[in-house]
Amino acid sequence: MKHKKIVIAGGSGFIAQAMARYFGKDNHVVLLTRKAASDQNNNYAHELIKAADGYNITYWRWDAQHVERHWSREIEGADMVINMAGKSVNCRYTEKNKKELISSRIQSTQTLGEAIRQTTVPPKLWINASSATIYRHTTDKPHDEFTGLISDARVDNIPYTFIDRLRFRYNKWRTGLREGRHSMRLKELDYDFGVQLSKHCENSIFEQRTPFTRKIALRIAIALGQGGILEPYYNLLKSGFGGHQGNGRQMYSWLHIEDLCRIVEWCYEHNDMEGVYNCSTPNAVTNADFMKTLRHITGHKYGLPAPAWLLEAGAAFIGTETELLLKSRWVYPARLLQSGFVFRYNALEQALREIIRHTPVKKYNFFQKKLAAC
Ligand SMILES: NC(=O)c1ccc[n+]([C@@H]2O[C@H](COP(=O)([O-])OP(=O)(O)OC[C@H]3O[C@@H](n4cnc5c(N)ncnc54)[C@H](OP(=O)(O)O)[C@@H]3O)[C@@H](O)[C@H]2O)c1
Questions:
Q1: Given 3-state DSSP classes, what are the helix, strand and coil percentages for the chain, each rounded to the nearest 5?
Q2: In Å, what is the CA distance from 354 to each residue of 9, 17, 256, 280?
Q3: What separation in angstroms does the CA of 216 have from each of 21, 72, 132, 201, 260?
């Protein structure tokens, strides 16, 4: 893809930055960010890309809530708009955080929708992030876009009011009594918020009236690249907890971040593509296999497993949720494969080796030394 104009919201984020790197040499990438230019050397794990590094990129400040002339004129005649903005799910699911997680995604989508409606030459394609976590926690079969199971209406309430919260807790308690503490049904209630969040992501884009712009929601599995989710895993390895998490049988759907960028390009080039797409390699692994491969590549012979109760305690301590580690995410990219898309990174080991090899030495020299020795 060359000489196109691509606008990406959530500009400083892990995926937006990877996309800017992927597209920014041959295309003009406009990154919308809530940060001022002076903040751009912030405390993000990755370094933000700069035009000075040879990329054709422009940063514009936005608040993700109001259409302002300085950035919205970039949407005029753009080839593609990509929304990757939203509060990070790496937080405790308190009521306040839940509201922010939802509103940051809905408002940024509504704002982009409004900006698109104000154009005279609308963008050809609009892509929004959704998540593979939209499907149920299952360990017996993968979910595709046609037959995949998404939580039903029984668990469809996000606790907002005090009464809603009480009702939700009562429902959980009753389900635990009836079906057991380790039942699938109870797990679904535990993991319900992630499902609802993904539903909001998808509804918010498909509700927007933009008749001349194709719309796609990507149900992204765990995107592996430099930074992102791999950093907490490196920390687990370093601290000796490089074994499996929970019982290790939960499925881990993944894709290389470069394949995610290639999927975006593929969607742009195929005018018939619309709606929702699972973004994951067809080769999901179990959590135990994922950790085993990571240990092998980084030269760690052993790693202690982390049982669910320990993870619960640790997650509460560091302010995150165990869902990110314990929920079984098993998706199959049926629609992408049907469209003819071919993944470049099909095997986990190949993907992880490539990522670790290109990770800056100053950050992970420990692992690179190990890798070199393998
Ligand atoms: N990474 C994955 O494996 C993965 C998997 C499934 C789904 N997703 C979804 O894909 C999207 C992008 O993921 P990511 O990993 O790139 O996330 P990320 O690194 O957390 O980036 C998201 C960006 O959104 C912006 N943002 C943060 N809080 C916001 C708020 N309150 N209002 C508006 N914008 C806000 C920030 O950009 P600025 O500060 O520059 O504005 C932030 O850098 C997210 O919706 C995520 O849930 C990611």
A1: 45, 15, 40
A2: 27, 18, 9, 17
A3: 21, 20, 14, 11, 13
Structure tokens at 138: 């299952």
CB atoms under 10 Å from CB of 240, counted, come to 12
Task: Give residue 85's pLDDT.
Answer: 97
Q: Is 278 in the pocket of ligand 1 (CB under 6 A)?
A: no
CATH number at residue 267: 3.40.50.720
Residue type, 160: Y
User: Cβ-count burial of 374 within 10 angstroms (0-12 exposed, 13-18 middle, 19+ buried)?
Assistant: exposed
For residue range 46-64, list pLDDT tens digits in order. Answer: 578 888 788 999 999 999 9
Phi then psi dihedrals of residue 139, to 5 deg: -120, 5
Cα(228) to centroid(ligand 1), Å: 10
Neighbours of 144 (CB within 10 A): 18
User: Cα–Cα distance between 216 and 15 in angstroms, integer?
Assistant: 16
Work out how many domains the chain is built from and give that number. Answer: 1
**By the 8 A CB rule, do 231 and 90 touch?**
no
pLDDT tens profile 157-197: 454 566 766 777 787 777 777 777 666 666 666 667 888 89
Pocket of ligand 1 contains residue 91 by CB under 6 Å: no
Q: What is the pTM of this model?
A: 0.89
What is the full DSSP assignment across 19-58?
HHHHHTTTSEEEEEESS-GGGGS-S-SSPPP-GGGT--EE
Q: Cα(136)–Cα(140) distance, rounded to whole angstroms? A: 11
179 or 290, which is more confident: 290
**Parent domain of 23:** 5-373
- What is residue 97's three-state secondary structure? helix
Query: In the structure encoding, which two tokens stand for residue 126, read together?
Result: 């609009």
| Ligand 1 nearest atom to the CA of residue 133, by list position | 6
